[in-house]
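Before relying on records like the one below, remember that each one covers exactly one chain. Contacts with other chains, cofactors or solvent are not represented anywhere in the record.
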Amino acid sequence: MVAVGDEISVDVARRIALNAQGFGEGRPRRGDVRQVRKAIGAAGVLQLDSVNVLCRSHYLPVYARVGDYARTTLDRLSWGDERELFEYFWGHKAALLPLSYYPLLRWRMRAAEQQVWDQELGPDVTAPWSVVAGMRRLNAEKPGYVDQVLAMITEQGPLTAGQASPDGVRRKRSDPDPDPTTGRMWNWQDAKIAIEYLFCAGRVTIAGRRNFERVYDLTERVLPADVLSAPELPADEARRELVRIAARGLGVATARDLCGAGQGHFSLPTATARQVLAELVESGDLIPVRVEGVTHQSYRWHEAKDRAVDARALLSPFDPLIWNRDRTHHLFDFFYRISIYTPAPQRIHGYYVLPFLLGDRLAARVDLKSNRATSTLEVPTLTPEPNTPDFTHSLATELQLLADWLNLQHIKITATSPTARALAQALSA
């Protein structure tokens, strides 16, 4: 065990982080439901995103840790009769979370229900800005509207947001709107604002997905009764447990990495985070350490392991291992920004770029696309990291496994760099 205040090298910190995220063990030949559960437990959270250029992002962290598994297994655990996950916000990110997290988030749901965005508890409230701004307007313009939406779901649910409009009125982008965050940029309708507010408040939850569109129903009709009846923890106790979860998943991290407001693994206001971390250090859950090259105090989870890592995986841009871009930069010397919102002429490494984890380093950036019309896994761009040993045979193997998992019959390398040509040769061999 590292003593309080001792310095650990960045190599040790990187191995600790990889082991904490489940990359210290080899992948099984075929991932069954037990392996899927284990991967979810290691990842801790599966971020949701609508981009489907390769595969829905929440499937990819499980694949990175398990390899070949049936995506229907994760669907059942998320939205089926075997539900073990639920949708809510982790930090500021929409995510699939284990049901055991639900009682830990009840205090946030209550705060959202009370709409304390502008008060002292405001930073503790998890809600998209479109909900906050939209509810301010609805409260003034349409008092009682939220209750009407809830009544519709109660009587007719499960419903999509588009089906839950009491008056059937759809706002248009051309309508006057003093707040451009609602109704224009995202074209959020009043019913969408109301139903997302009810979701943040825990009154409704996600019963399922139709072509990835959320379907909402009353929470008591969706989640298991024993989860809903579990004793609610006081807010301070819940916060400590949430930060424990974050620390266990990160292995070693700064306060900002763990719970920095708006950017930590789980966000808390600065003063609250400082108090929680002090309590966890006193209890022995966290061990203060100094990480080579990091100016801020770091904390090591008391059970974190430093073991050799021999991993091979393509990482979703939303994988918990790398979603904190600054932490990724320090641990892996890998400056990474997602490019899906960058205009095409300004993209450097491609559109949907997955870092390639090999051993305990990020060896390359692989731009990937599933061309479902031709059943082809396409590689438009491939960028090796500087001073990286040849990885083309390892990447060829990983691409073939990925294509098989996605039921794609072909792999096409359209990138033209020397490394890409070597990869094409490795694939043909």
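Residues 180-186 have pLDDT under 50 and may be disordered.
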